[in-house]
Amino acid sequence: MKGNAMTRMAAPSGRGRVFMRGGLAALVLVVLLADLASACPTCKENLANSGPDAINLIRGYFWSIIFMMSMPFLILGSLAGYFYYEVRKARHRQAAVPSLTVSTSPMNSW
Q1: CB distance 38 to 44 below 8 Å
Q2: Is 3 domain-assigned?
Q3: What residues make up the domain containing 83?
Q4: pLDDT digits over 39-93, tens only?
Q5: Whole-number Cα distances in Å, 63 to 39, 56, 59, 69, 78
């Protein structure tokens, strides 16, 4: 019994092989050249000196990364809170206004 299309893996075609080889070559290059791209020369040399300035530089990088990573959450959270507040305010206003209903009873028809 042959397996269905979900369980069988097709062999890559000509283009698929080229992309797979290119991806594999890129991965090997990234792994082999990772040490060269570890930091910019100025930062790397400054940290290598290990003076008091290096500690301040590390502390500055730490806080700048924390600040940058928190901004998307802060912005999206603020927008979500603002929209929640506006919806609640609109619902409160809508509930405060008495609804006008038309009565169809025969007693009120004259």
Answers
A1: yes
A2: no
A3: 39-95
A4: 566 666 656 666 666 677 778 888 998 999 999 999 999 999 999 999 999 999 9
A5: 18, 11, 6, 10, 21
What is each CA distance from 47 to 37, 43, 92, 101, in whole angstroms?
Answer: 15, 6, 58, 76
User: Which residues touch 58 (CB under 8 Å, ≥6 apart)?
Assistant: 47
Asked whether residue 21 is domain-assigned, the answer is no
Identify whether 52 is part of a domain.
yes
Instruction: Quote the pTM value.
Output: 0.42
The Cα 67–Cα 72 span in angstroms is 10
How many structural domains comprise the chain?
1
